Amino acid sequence: MSTIREYLTADHGHCDELFANMEDAVVKSIESAKDAYEEFAKEAEKHFQMEERIMFLEFEEKTGMTQGPTAIMRHEHAQMRNLIAEMGKALEAKDKDKFFGNSETLMILMQQHNMKEEQMLYPMAQQHLSAESDRIVEMMQSIIVE
């Protein structure tokens, strides 16, 4: 089984791939890009929930840090959720300029966010949660997003 760090870092890569596929679909035809958008939006939300509902809570419980890195990451998740929603509205309106304006902002935010998680938070989480790593990864794998 992979570590928490490996699992979530790999999921970042998966979401990045879906993001690129979505942008490619919009370039080809904004009218037919809805499926690619919905797949990206669903998988991004699943990633946020794996962190917020499982890993962050486990980390906070173990370390007692509730106003540190996890609070910042939750705030950034909220910003990304808003941008993803705005991209969906732009798709509905068939407004490529608005879509790509929001997707460019999202891409920059995601890159910075993922770097902070991968270089700081995930190593900290792995250090504090290594004994529970298998259980936490299994819980994240089985999460259902509604």
List keywords for this structure.
Four Helix Bundle (Hemerythrin (Met), subunit A); 84% helix; 146 residues; 5 helices; 0% strand
What report would you give on this structure?
This protein has a single domain, classed as Four Helix Bundle (Hemerythrin (Met), subunit A) (Up-down Bundle). The chain is elongated, with a radius of gyration of 16 Å. The chain has five helices and no strands. Helices cover 84% and strands 0% of the residues. With 146 residues, the chain is mainly α.
What are the SSEs and their pairings?
Elements: H1 4-28, H2 34-63, H3 69-92, H4 96-129, H5 133-141
Helix pairs in contact: 1-2, 1-4, 2-3, 2-5, 3-4
SS summary, helix count: 5
Query: So what's the CATH class?
Result: Mainly Alpha
Assign the CATH architecture.
Up-down Bundle
Mean pLDDT: 95
Largest sheet: none
Radius of gyration: 16 Å
Number of strands: 0
The geometry reads as elongated
What is the first-to-last residue Cα distance? 26 Å
User: What percent of residues adopt helix (DSSP H or I)?
Assistant: over 70%
Structural class: mainly alpha
Domain Hemerythrin-like: 4-125
InterPro entries: Hemerythrin-like
Protein name: Hemerythrin domain-containing protein
Organism: Sulfurimonas xiamenensis
